[in-house]
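PT: before anyone asks, these are the final sequences, not the draft ones from last week. 226 residues across everything. Please model them as a single complex and drop the result in this thread when it's through.
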Amino acid sequence: NAGVTQTPKFRILKIGQSMTLQCTQDMNHNYMYWYRQDPGMGLKLIYYSVGAGITDKGEVPNGYNVSRSTTEDFPLRLELAAPSQTSVYFCASSYGTSNTEAFFGQGTRLTVV
Amino acid sequence: AQSVSQHNHHVILSEAASLELGCNYSYGGTVNLFWYVQYPGQHLQLLLKYFSGDPLVKGIKGFEAEFIKSKFSFNLRKPSVQWSDTAEYFCAVKAGNNRKLIWGLGTSLAVNP
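LR: through. Structure below.
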């Protein structure tokens, strides 16, 4: 059982470049989330989705976009990378809102130079 | 606004010492409560969770937490820590029908052998 799989694990981008962080889950979870984690700042929610075709902004959505065309996949897009987007990104999923926990991917360490 | 407060940002203990990490939340209704652990360089993993019933919940690796509704608290405890418990610990709360988890900023625990 793979759980939540994120790719790539590491990436270095130049300012202004774009990239997509991939996230897929095989647990048939309805809810998926993207977080960024910065030292001492905890987890900040970027975007989330409650099902295929539905996405919503979290606390820090600026500079990012998402899509949810299938239940399994929830890619995160950075269009114009900026140094402020240097962070560790985690994708997570959960079955729903009631009495369920979130399962996390291994994370993507992104550096923008 | 709903929030989660973790009082200790950095904790340093010697092996065999007892551990208690504080977590308080601000929400007066029904809550689901979680403690996650993040070992160095790894993703977040669930330690334990409370949804209903016995307010004293036991998790993996000898951890436990007690939900005290009157104090809006969900403190994490372990009677005797080990070097391998060195990690960052996050408290999270799902408040009512909110679709998102609210996260504390985390507590960094270092256990000296």
